[in-house]
């Protein structure tokens, strides 16, 4: 019986992404207006340093279509190292022409060894 219980716990954990979260990537609000300022926060919850460049984060729709980088935004292309437990905060400006709907930000973290992994904020809404 005990083995069966552990098997159920292991299966439930794997259905939720395995519980191996490397970062917490969030916005400061759940609702914005077009042209509004979005606070992005990323916390390295892993036990190793990760490479990150939140300046290159992209606004995406629910069906994962991207708007690309914001107009006029200058970015350094090199990721910075974010040690285990550290936090990085940036401000982004939503394009004034952002249609109403549900959106997310997407960014890529660099894992040890150079592999990239896409991470997403929770959904938020944009409305006038």
Output the keywords.
Immunoglobulin-like; about 130 residues; three-stranded antiparallel β-sheet; five-stranded mixed β-sheet; 1 helix; mainly beta
Task: Describe what you observe in this structure.
- This protein is mainly β and 128 residues long.
- It has one domain: Sandwich (Immunoglobulin-like).
- The protein has one helix and ten strands; from the N terminus they run αββββββββββ.
- Strands 2, 5, 8, 9 and 10 form a five-stranded mixed β-sheet that branches.
- The model is unreliable at 4-20 (pLDDT under 50).
What would you say about this model in short?
This protein is mainly beta and 128 residues long. It is built from one helix and ten strands.
**What is the helical fraction, as a range of percent?**
10-25%
- pLDDT averaged over residues: 82
| Uncertain residue ranges | 4-20
Question: CATH architecture, please?
Answer: Sandwich
Q: How many DSSP helices? A: 1
- The counted number of beta strands is 10
Q: Shape from CA axes?
A: elongated
Give the full name of the CATH homologous superfamily.
Answer: Intracellular proteinase inhibitor BsuPI
Compute the gyration radius: what is it? Answer: 17 Å
Sheet bearing the most strands, described?
5 strands, mixed
CATH class: Mainly Beta
- From the N-terminal CA to the C-terminal CA, the straight-line distance is 56 Å
- Strand-and-helix sequence, N→C? HEEEEEEEEEE
CATH fold node name: Immunoglobulin-like
Structural class: mainly beta
Overall tally of domains: 1
**Beta-strand percentage?**
35-45%
